Amino acid sequence: MISTIARKEAVELWRDGRFRWGAALVATLLAVALLSGWQHYRDIEASHTAATEATWQRWLSQGEKNPHSAAHYGVYAFKPITPLSLVDQGVNSYTGVFTWLEAHNQNPFEYRPAQDAPALARFGQLTASTVLQLLVPLLMVLLGFSAIAAEREAGTMRLLLSAGVTRGTLAAGKAAGLALGLGVLLVPAALAGALALVTTGTAAETVSAVSSVRVLLLGGSYMLYFAAILGLTLAVSAWARTPRAALVTLLGVWIVNALVAPRVATDVARTRAPLPAAEAFRQAIADDLRNGIDGHSPQDQRQQALRDSVLAAYGVDSIEQLPVNYAGISLQAGEEYANRVYDRHYGALASTLLAQEALHRRLGLVAPLLAVRSASMGLAGTDVYHHEHFVRAAEEHRRLIQRILNADIAQNSRFGETYTAGPALWAQVPEFTYTPPSLATVLSNQSSSALLLVTWVLLAGIAYGVGMRRLTPE
Amino acid sequence: MRSTRPLLEADALVKDFGGHRAVDGLSLAVHPGEIYCLLGPNGAGKSTTINCFLGFVTPTSGSVRIADRDVTAHPVETKRALAYIPEQVNLYRNLSGLENLAYLAALGGAQRAERERLRSLLVDAGLPADAIDRRVSTYSKGMRQKVAVALAMAKQADVLLLDEPTSGLDPKASNEFSDLLGRLRERGVAILMATHDLFRARETGQRVGIMKRGRLVTELATTDIGHAELEQLYLQHMHD
């Protein structure tokens, strides 16, 4: 009987011009979003690959020079773009895509597309995630608001209930019918997305880069989100006295979920975990480097202490007598002190950003969009956590380069002499490779998002069930 | 006729809504092949009585039974045995008459019927052949009622409940509807019809009951009374 009701609902939905137009519009937007996401991925992937290769060749072919000059010459580290970013570009537009790895400085990431975007871009980008998170729920609301309320208003509820249909069967049939109608829209979209994923690179690359488990989990997260929205839509329709009241209520729910909650969540996160102003952040790092982390160890004192300790360790009176080049030791000591300063400030910055992200995720209890957005970005590898993971990996590589070059200066030259090294040294520096966080880590991060989505599905289901239990024929 | 057990029975039925008693100790029985017409003004308790048989409202006390089963205790089974035609038969506007019938018959537990059989039932119920595959949004009230009658035939219901079915129908449509009810009665269906239409009740029914303020104040066979007498009796009760 459930299948009979579901089939009839789907037929009615299909014959309803609103569905055909709405579904066609959403399907078109989804197709355009997927296509532009695919094109964006291909462009960025190609330019990153070319730039990564170019920067590496530039490093290897920089010619004879002092290793410290080479350290300042530096290399660029490009954040890899994940194939699933064609679905959800996450925070990539705001975090930048590459950084310059050089001596002394942990540089910020450069090229943030959001900085160059026109003012209208503030209204949101057309991405597959935008369509899935905002427009598909709106379509569901517009199609489902009358599912129960209209039966009561039109009087067909009396016929249904007099036929011996139980409220539970009716509830399940209605839900299955609407899901079937939406499946007509979403299944082709999912297939198009899968096709786009496969064609983002060779199959082998795609499979290794994006485990199929991530794809399935991403799909599962959106299914939970849609189930929650479907449940809420049907619950409101069951509780409302008229279809008009159901529509007004559901549009209010949609506005809160899609427009108000993300803004409020951002403001709450900003208030609860405030970020330092950019200038203050830079000044604090400069102050610590100059005056010491404790504020009482100026740079000249630290250098004097280092010099004394090195001379004592080697049992000599001057740096000229050292069997190693003191310049290399001093440079490395300066790097290591700066590393402590960077760890302190960038570490605190990362902690604040991650705290904001966690707060956003927890606020998924208020609006399911926040939970699915977190899960979507996390599984697509485009959230703050993935960015910070890459920042850390790039910084570790910068430090490794400095260690190799400074060690070479210390070991292979003498204080005061003009020293140059060549391609053999540059080749000792390993090429930067990046391994993204494991799926287990991502799942651990996103477990609360999944839990919140399941909670929303259960709550919506309970509200729907109670609404149907108290349903009267008119 | 009375040798068979009634298919519809109300026994000392009481239904209160808050402090208001809508049905007050009603007892009646409708036998197979009988049309029983419940008369009375608005608020007399006719629709509440029908709703009790439908299981839409639960009796405060007393009982309602369909085919020997208590409606409250067996809500699904009793509904399987009945068909219901409300004052306004509202169907699914985007489905055709045939699709509506197929859907509601399937939900009502009718044996899976061939489309052709359902089509012939619609024709039997008086629906024009060219309307059967048209969307119901183009149907008149009378045409929608014919779909409901076809549904009763498709379900092979033992019991038919009608709530003001001829209200708003033109005389020709009312007449056709009465004929349809007569044919169902001949098939042994027990029919309980709430109506304001004294003439139709006298013409169609075998017995009429007059309700006033929730109570059944008079019950008599239509063979024992003429149109004028019925009207006089009705008005007399209303003015008491």
Plain-language structure description:
- The complex is a heterodimer of chains A (474) and B (240).
- Chain A is mostly helical and 474 residues long.
- Chain A has one domain.
- Chain A has helices spanning 2-15, 17-60, 67-73, 92-95, 113-116, 128-144, 149-154, 156-162, 167-198, 203-209, 212-239, 243-272, 278-291, 299-314, 326-362, 368-380, 384-412, 423-428, 439-469, and strands at residues 75-78, 98-101.
- A two-stranded antiparallel sheet of chain A has the order 1-2.
- In chain A, helix 1 crosses helix 9.
- Chain A is elongated, with a radius of gyration of 29 Å.
- The model of chain A has no long low-confidence stretch (mean pLDDT 87).
- Chain B is globular, with a radius of gyration of 18 Å.
- Chain B has helices at 46-54, 75-80, 97-107, 115-124, 141-155, 171-186, 198-204, 227-239, and strands at residues 8-17, 20-30, 35-39, 61-66, 69-70, 82-85, 159-163, 190-195, 207-212, 215-221.
- Chain B contains 8 helices and 10 strands.
- Chain B is an alpha/beta fold and 240 residues long.
- Chain B starts with 7 loop residues before the first strand and ends with a helix.
- Chain B has 2 domains: 1-81 and 158-240, Rossmann fold (3-Layer(aba) Sandwich), CATH 3.40.50.300; 89-157.
- Chains A and B meet through helix 1 and helix 8 of A and helix 2, strand 6 and helix 3 of B.
